[in-house]
From TrEMBL:
<dbReference type="InterPro" id="IPR013249">
    <property type="entry name" value="RNA_pol_sigma70_r4_t2"/>
</dbReference>
<dbReference type="GO" id="GO:0003677">
    <property type="term" value="F:DNA binding"/>
</dbReference>
<keyword id="KW-0805">Transcription regulation</keyword>
<dbReference type="GO" id="GO:0006352">
    <property type="term" value="P:DNA-templated transcription initiation"/>
</dbReference>
<dbReference type="InterPro" id="IPR014284">
    <property type="entry name" value="RNA_pol_sigma-70_dom"/>
</dbReference>
<keyword id="KW-0731">Sigma factor</keyword>
<dbReference type="GO" id="GO:0016987">
    <property type="term" value="F:sigma factor activity"/>
</dbReference>
<dbReference type="InterPro" id="IPR013325">
    <property type="entry name" value="RNA_pol_sigma_r2"/>
</dbReference>
<protein>
    <submittedName>
        <fullName>Putative RNA polymerase ECF-subfamily sigma factor</fullName>
    </submittedName>
</protein>
<dbReference type="Pfam" id="PF04542">
    <property type="entry name" value="Sigma70_r2"/>
</dbReference>
<keyword id="KW-0238">DNA-binding</keyword>
<dbReference type="InterPro" id="IPR013324">
    <property type="entry name" value="RNA_pol_sigma_r3/r4-like"/>
</dbReference>
<feature type="domain" description="RNA polymerase sigma factor 70 region 4 type 2">
    <location>
        <begin position="123"/>
        <end position="174"/>
    </location>
</feature>
<feature type="domain" description="RNA polymerase sigma-70 region 2">
    <location>
        <begin position="32"/>
        <end position="97"/>
    </location>
</feature>
<comment type="similarity">
    <text>Belongs to the sigma-70 factor family. ECF subfamily.</text>
</comment>
<dbReference type="InterPro" id="IPR039425">
    <property type="entry name" value="RNA_pol_sigma-70-like"/>
</dbReference>
<dbReference type="InterPro" id="IPR014325">
    <property type="entry name" value="RNA_pol_sigma-E_actinobac"/>
</dbReference>
Length: 185
């Protein structure tokens, strides 16, 4: 059976049928247009760097394109793209931590704005960045993306009990960092 898609041009009333690779490429282009912003936001929440988030998104989409002929009609593409993104992020974190240099002294933190009610003001994203990468992934997927424990377990390739344990540990640490600013879920 041949897959057929139809593309119409504004300059022409006649529709051109697409078959085979052209149809798959058109489907992939539509998927990228719909999913890239969501993937980029998810990547940013995990790494807190828009440039790195863009690179991770592009790498994720490149990996998906390489297997597109196998997955484009059979898989849940949203779930698959999240899983590929998380695996790409975890691989990148492993590579990056091997090349990081530990400094003898930390630089002075920037001065806090005048009138701040707390001497140490920690935003949620800054606090999230202090968590281990797997705990970050659990918090972002569970509470930002609002996925179930089972879905997060599937995306990260761990058991549901591991997701629950990481979630509890991460929320406890966030509560300790943020104090009264962090409401109970």
């Amino acid at each position: 059976m041949t897959d057929v898609s139809v593309v119409s041009s504004e300059s022409s009333e006649r529709a051109l049928p697409l078959t085979g690779r052209a149809a798959r490429d058109a489907e992939f282009t539509a998927f990228v247009a719909a999913s890239a912003p969501r993937l980029r936001r998810l990547a940013y929440l995990m790494c807190r760097d828009w440039h790195l988030a863009q690179d991770l998104t592009q790498t994720t989409l490149a990996k998906m394109y390489a297997s597109w002929s196998r997955i484009w009609r059979t898989a849940n593409l949203e779930a698959y793209s999240r899983k590929v993104l998380m695996n790409t992020l975890l691989d990148q974190k492993k590579r990056r931590s091997d090349s990081e240099v530990v400094l003898a002294e930390l630089p002075e933190p920037p001065a806090r704005p005048a009138g701040s009610t707390r001497e140490l003001s920690v935003t949620l994203l800054e606090a999230l960045a202090t968590l281990p990468v797997h705990d970050q992934a659990v918090v972002v997927l569970r509470h930002w993306e609002d996925h179930s424990v089972d879905t997060v377990a599937e995306i990260l390739g761990v058991t549901p009990s591991a997701v629950k344990m990481r979630n509890a540990r991460a929320l406890s640490r966030l509560r300790a960092l943020l104090g009264d600013d962090f409401p109970d879920p």
